[in-house]
Structure formats: structure tokens, C-alpha cells
Amino acid sequence: MKKEIREAARIIRRSTKTAALTGAGISVESGIPDFRSRCGLWERFDPMEYGTIEAFRTHPEKVWAMLEVMWSIMEPARPNAAHKGLARLEELGLLEGIITQNIDNLHQAAGSKRVIEYHGNCRTLSCLSCGRQYRAADVSQQLPPKCTCGKILKPDVVFFGEAIPAQPVIESQALAHACQVLLVVGTSATVAPANAIPRIAQMSGAQIIEVNITPTLLTPLVTEVFLHGKATEVVTALVNEVEKTMG
Ligand code: NAD
């Protein structure tokens, strides 16, 4: 493993533009379960049943039963060493930006400045009927939160079956095309279209470094260096190694 960390650090140091793609796995050690975790949350609420836009449009109260539990898990969560490690890389001028599939705001809480939120975020909610938008902090006292027009509000996260907003798609594709290195942390690469980003980067000439506790669909296809282990441990070791080579 030490050898792989050294190799990954060398690749990052040599690169003039490195980007990161993160998934639910990076936040597992902050207490937020990913879809693969054997945990009460996703056993109780199948994301394919509760996480679709169709489900929200037809039964918003039912979907809010899941959102309330998710909210109670995300609200107290704090950034872990992996989020902080990526923020440190950006501070050192070695990370151009992060494309995250997460909606938990933990990269920003760790201090990362350029974060492209591919699947939206939980900070705001909107009314699907009249389009009014609210800050979560202003409406979360009463759940499910309602718009002044009476309709139940939807968090501004991308549900299954919903289109990804144009801005993150354009920004992340540009970053994937331009980067020389893509650091992929804690994603199973099963959710489209975000899972195309590593392939786009690789086709444009980028080297892919992957951090995960288990190989993924990406590993045999695009990954050049696979760093096996928990995100907190691996990212910390990687950033330490990078800093060591900076003297
Ligand atoms: P996923 O649940 O499909 O896969 C998570 C990946 O992380 C797996 O490959 C797993 O092996 C790996 N992993 C788990 N723990 C890890 C650790 N400690 N260190 C390193 N790797 C670890 O997640 P995904 O690929 O991001 O796709 C699921 C979708 O669900 C995403 O679109 C995301 O928006 C959403 N989601 C978000 C959150 C969040 O915001 N924190 C949580 C759950 C799901």
C-alpha cells in the first residue's frame, strides 16, 4: 500500500490540474450511510422506491418520512479527515475542484472552495408548484415543510428520474476534460450520468486514482492506481505523502 500511496502522490505532484470526484463513501466515516451499507436507513427506505421524483410528486408525505430520517442523520454530521484532506490539497494549490455526488455539504464544511454539487444539496428547498425557494434553516421546524401556497416542499436534491441541472453538468464535464488527474473517492460508479465522469476524464488523457474499500466497476476499466482502504486513512496518508515531497 505504501508503494501505491507514493505512486499516487508522485502523480498528483506532477499534475498541473487535478480534480476529485466523490461519492457517498467519503461521508460514511462521518456517520452518513452509503447505499451499500447494511444499515437501518436504506433497509427501511428503498432509495428506488422513496428516492424517485415520481414518488415525490404522487406521495410527498411518504417521501418525507425518509427525508426526515435522512435529515436527522445529515444535520449533526461533521467533515472527516478525508473531506479535510481534499480541502488541504486545494489549499496547497494541488486540487482544482471537487465534483461531488453527495448532498451533505461536508466538503464545504471542511473548507473546500470549489465544489460542484452534481446532485444538488440539502441547504434549500423548492415548491414544485409555484417555484418559491426557501432556506432549509427557515422551514425545518415543521416537517414536512410547506410552501406559503400550501404545497409540500422538495429539497433541492436531484431525485432518481430527475434531470441533472445544466450548470453542474457543464462545469463537471469541463473539469473532467481539462484535468490531468482525477482522484475518485468512495463511489460505486453505478449512478448515471455521474459515473461517466471518470471515463470522460480518462478519454481526455487523465490518470485515474481511485480510493475505495472495495474494487468498483471503474477499477478494471479506467483506474491506474487503486488505493485500497477507508477514505479517512487513505486520503490522510496521501496528503501527508504529497506534503512530504513538497519539503
Ligand atoms: P454508493 O452508496 O453507491 O457507493 C459508495 C461507495 O463508497 C462504495 O463503492 C463503497 O465501497 C465505498 N465506501 C464505503 N465506505 C467507504 C469508506 N469508508 N472509504 C472509502 N470508500 C467507501 O454511493 P455513490 O456511488 O455516491 O452513489 C449513490 C448516490 O446516493 C449518489 O448519487 C449520492 O448522491 C447519493 N447518496 C449521498 C449521500 C451523501 O450525501 N452523503 C449518502 C448516500 C447516498
Largest sheet, if any? 6 strands, parallel
Global outline: elongated
pLDDT < 50 runs, ≥5 residues = none
Number of helical segments with 4 or more residues:
11
Q: What is the second-level CATH architecture of the domain at 1-32 and 78-119 and 164-247?
A: 3-Layer(aba) Sandwich
Rg, Å, rounded:
18 Å
Q: How many strand segments?
A: 9
Descriptive report:
- With 247 residues, the chain is of the alpha/beta class.
- It has a domain at 1-32 and 78-119 and 164-247: TPP-binding domain (Rossmann fold).
- It is built from 11 helices and 9 strands.
- It has helices spanning 2-14, 40-44, 47-50, 53-58, 60-74, 81-91, 106-110, 136-139, 166-178, 197-203, 231-246; strands spanning 18-22, 97-100, 115-117, 120-126, 133-135, 154-157, 181-185, 207-212, 223-228.
- Strands 3-2-1-7-8-9 form a 6-stranded parallel beta sheet, with helices on both faces. Strands 5-4-6 form a 3-stranded antiparallel beta sheet.
- A hairpin with a 6-residue loop joins strand 4 and strand 5 (133-135).
- Helix 1 packs across helix 11 (231-246) and helix 9 (166-178) packs parallel to helix 10.
- The protein binds nicotinamide-adenine-dinucleotide.
- Nicotinamide-adenine-dinucleotide is lined by residues 23-25, 27-29, 32, 34-36, 101-104, 119, 186-188, 190-191, 211-214, 216, 230-231.
